[in-house]
Amino acid sequence: QVQLVESGGGLVQPGGSLRLSCAASRSIFSLNSMGWYRQAPGKQRELVARIGSGGSTGYADSVKGRFTISRDNAKNTVYLQMNNLKPEDTAVYYCNSFPPRDYWGQGTQVTVSS
After folding, report:
1. Are the C-beta atoms of residues 77 and 8 closer than 8 Å to each other?
2. Beta-bridge mates of residue 24
3. Whether 4 contacts 105, CB under 8 Å
4. For labelling alongside 61, which of 46, 77, 81, 90 has CA 20 to 30 A away?
5. Could you read off the pLDDT of 76-87 as tens digits, one per residue?
6. Mean pLDDT, to the nearest integer, of 20-43?
7. CA-based R_g, the chain, Å
8. Beta bridge partners of 18
9. Quick check: bond before 41 cis, omega within 30?
10. 29: part of which helix (H) or strand (E)?
11. H helices then E strands: how many in the chain?
């Protein structure tokens, strides 16, 4: 069964931090690159960060130096540590394989506001 369950979002002030988690089914996670994506209101979904099965990473320019993606292969879980959050980071965050499959989870809302 395909499953993607994101968690860890919330309301945070600018400059704050959040850590997102995504529990994925083995069929998606195993041997695949994984990615975190986000969709802000009125905008298209975009790739934020990706991590290969061996741990190589890549980031969108807008989050480089602030976000860190990691994965725990034993737990089929991928994480996104977000530091120095900005209002423009406000969005619903999703995880999926990279490139993404058609199935998406419910996402987790991140709101950065004072």
Report:
1. no
2. 4
3. yes
4. 77
5. 999 999 999 999
6. 91
7. 13
8. 82
9. no
10. helix 26-29
11. 1, 10
